[in-house]
Structure formats: structure tokens, C-alpha cells
Design goal:
alpha/beta; five-stranded parallel beta sheet; 9 strands; two-stranded antiparallel sheet; 224 residues
Length: 224
């Protein structure tokens, strides 16, 4: 998978891809992440990429020309499955969306800034708009990192145990059940006997029941 991220602040995103699972994914050749400084496609000595909004109002708007030039150039080099704009008014990111994107080959992530991008960019190029929650960040960079992490970790071979991703919260519209490890007792708190029983079927049933209980308590909205 290749992910191209367009931003006015690409340096904000470098460190998450230089450690842990994301770094390993790229070292294995399972994922490529390329950052593109939007100002490289701007004109004039000030490398301007924003201007005042037509109709007035507070804030600045990202101009269409630099974004169009950047995306158009990338599109001449390869076919993209999705061109995604990270925006608060987009579709809220879910595990289902991450699963769907994880089987794609090439993605562009466009990071917004200021009051957002000229609507004509959305009309010309954007195929999907994604939000990571009902709040506003100073830019789309952190959201792009979240989306890339959620997608890349699902690629075959990225996790040492591929079954791990399949048992994450939200994969089956349930939150995860409680989990434990050694020691079996600590400060009077004991691991449930069922998890020490060695009975795989009973353990699986217990885990499902606990996952359902926790989901009903905390996130009933995600149940089918």
C-alpha cells in the first residue's frame, strides 16, 4: 500500500512513522508513506496557499490552485483508489472504514488547515471525506496519522499475530472483553477462573458474554 499525504506542515507527521508498528510496516515493504509539502505547488515568492474567503467572514481558506496542481501531478504517476480529505464534517472514522481502506493499493490524504479548502477541490478531486471525531483540530495532520495507523496495522504481515487485529474492539460491533496476564493474583485481585481453565470453548463463550455486557453498558449505539 502507498499513502501520499499532502500538508502544509508535513514535519508534524514524521515521528509516528519512525517507530513501532508503522516503522516495521515500511521496513518490510508492506506500506509506503510519502509526505508532500503543499507550498511546493504554490506560486509567488511567499509560496502562498491561503486567501480570504469570498463573501467575507473570519479565517482564511486554502486556495484551489496549489492543491489541484499537487493532486493532478500525483494522479499522473499512478491510479488512486481514494482521495481522502480529513475534515470535521466528513464521515466519522470507524473500524469498518479502516477495514475497507486496508484492501486498497494507493491513497491520497489531504490535510486541511485554517477554515478549510476551497469547495472546488472537493468537487474536482475528493472521493471520500473522513472525520476522526466531533471536534476541531488546528489541522488535518494528526487526523491523517490516526487514519494511516488504523489502516496500515490491518495489512497482512504488519502485526506479528494477524489474528490480533481480528479480535480488536469494533471488529464485530462489540468492545473487547477484559484481558489479563501474569500474575494470576495481585493485591487480592484474581484472574477469573474460567481463563485459567484451559477450556477453549468456555473461554470463548465467556469472552463473548463479557464483550456484549461491556458494549451494552458503554456503547449500546454500536450494536446491530
Amino acid at each position: 500500500m502507498r499513502i501520499d499525504i499532502i500538508s502544509v506542515l508535513p514535519e508534524l507527521m514524521e515521528s509516528p512513522f519512525q517507530a513501532s508498528i508503522l516503522k516495521r510496516a515500511m521496513q518490510k515493504g508492506l506500506a509506503e508513506v510519502h509526505f508532500h509539502q503543499l507550498r511546493d505547488w504554490s506560486t509567488g515568492k511567499h509560496r502562498q496557499i491561503d486567501d480570504e474567503p469570498y463573501g467575507g467572514g473570519a479565517g482564511m481558506v486554502m486556495m484551489i490552485e496549489p492543491i489541484d496542481k499537487c493532486i493532478s501531478e500525483l494522479k499522473t504517476q499512478r491510479n488512486y483508489d481514494e482521495i481522502i480529505y480529513l475534515t470535521p464534517d466528513g464521515e466519522t472514522l470507524t473500524q469498518k472504514i479502516a477495514n475497507t481502506l486496508s484492501i486498497k493499493n494507493n491513497l491520497i490524504l489531504l490535510c486541511g488547515h485554517y477554515k478549510g479548502i476551497d469547495q472546488r477541490v472537493r468537487d474536482l478531486h475528493i472521493t471520500k471525506e473522513i472525520s476522526i471525531g466531533d471536534y476541531v483540530l488546528t489541522g488535518g495532520e494528526l487526523a491523517a496519522c490516526v487514519l494511516a495507523d488504523a489502516v496500515i496495522r490491518l495489512l497482512p504481515g504488519v502485526l506479528n499475530d494477524e489474528q490480533s487485529a481480528l479480535t480488536d474492539s469494533f471488529q464485530d460491533n462489540l468492545l473487547s472483553p477484559p484481558i489479563y496476564t501474569r500474575p494470576s493474583e495481585y493485591k487480592g485481585l484474581k484472574v477469573p477462573d474460567i481463563l485459567l481453565s484451559g477450556n477453549s470453548k468456555k473461554i470463548e463463550d465467556w469472552q463473548h458474554e463479557e464483550a456484549l455486557r461491556i458494549t451494552i453498558e458503554r456503547r449500546p449505539d454500536i450494536l446491530d
